[in-house]
Amino acid sequence: xxxxxxxxxxxxxxxxxxxxxxxxxxxxxxxxxxxxxxxxxxxxxxxxxxxxxxxxxxxxxxxxxxxxxxxxxxxxxxxxxxxxxxxxxxxxxxxxxxxxxxxxxxxxxxxxxxxxxxxxxxxxxxxxxxxxxxxxxxxxxxxxxxxxxxxxxxxxxxxxxxxxxxxxxxxxxxxxxxxxxxxxxxxxxxxxxxxxxxxxxxxxxxxxxxxxxxxxxxxxxxxxxxxxxxxxxxxxxxxxxxxxxxxxxxxxxxxxxxxxxxxxxxxxxxxxxxxxxxxxxxxxxxxxxxxxxxxxxxxxxxxxxxxxxxxxxxxxxxxxxxxxxxxxxxxxxxxxxxxxxxxxxxxxxxxxxxxxxxxxxxxxxxxxxxxxxxxxxxxxxxxxxxxxxxxxxxxxxxxxxxxxxxx
Length: 407
Description:
single chain; Rossmann fold; Argininosuccinate synthetase, chain A, domain 2; 3 domains; five-stranded parallel sheet; 12 helices; 14 strands; 41% helix; elongated
């Protein structure tokens, strides 16, 4: 395959992607364009621009984009309408960011005439799949370069030697092996590898970077009211907020109360098991609140159907199929279910827990007069239950009679 002439690189400004940038230049002799996404990872991104300039990238080829509102509005919120949990626990914080990054890579490539995009995901992980499936769905002609699957820089020593040989600045704290790998965005922080690789060992206290230990959380509970419109959170304690601002506020509340830490061994799409520690404080509160408002606004048939497809929907996101027709089909069903998911939920935050304690809505299906233990003024005739039970018992009676007959 011929060498690419121009490559758009997903660039963090860190050591690994800086090495990739220089490797692309030396290996292919190509022009490199960088894309750095502000996903709310909490890092200053201007150093990424300065390092790209230092490595010979033209100013017009450096793209640093604040995508926080887009991330929450167009990716996180649609996912939370589904109450998506991978393998019943993981809130998909890394998974949901990858299609957004891939979308911007492809858009920039198309705008500047690049014939390839590149990423820094390794050949063992899920991210390579997510980036490349997304790119294929968005532009079937685009070429994707994954240096970790191509180069011979297979050890930390060789990476550092390459960096030194090519005048790539190496921070003092990057010369040794990091104790674990971190990926962060507005939804979560993910920690994996090294000190976390043995699932029989408890994760060290220093792994958590966003959420305070439960033991240090306040001894007094805090109430927060979250208002929803058509399944999306729109206000906290009556204050309307943009999607990214709202999630940021929930993150602050959750982190303060030790909420949203998950230590999990999951099944990667590529076939191996992986142990990770995830911190998703705001997302954990948001999931609890969304469940709370659905309890009174979503019909049982719609809710049970939605719950039954959730594992498949979550698996599609985890495996990198955000832009697949089946995910879009499921999204249409999920979004239809949210037409009346409007109202307010009060959640109690205390010592690592977020618990719904009250919910109300003008769209509520809850009828107190039907469920009351007091006089219901004829709202429900209890005699009707006899026929209902008799019909539902019919097939069970027939089965029992057959079994008694044939032994």
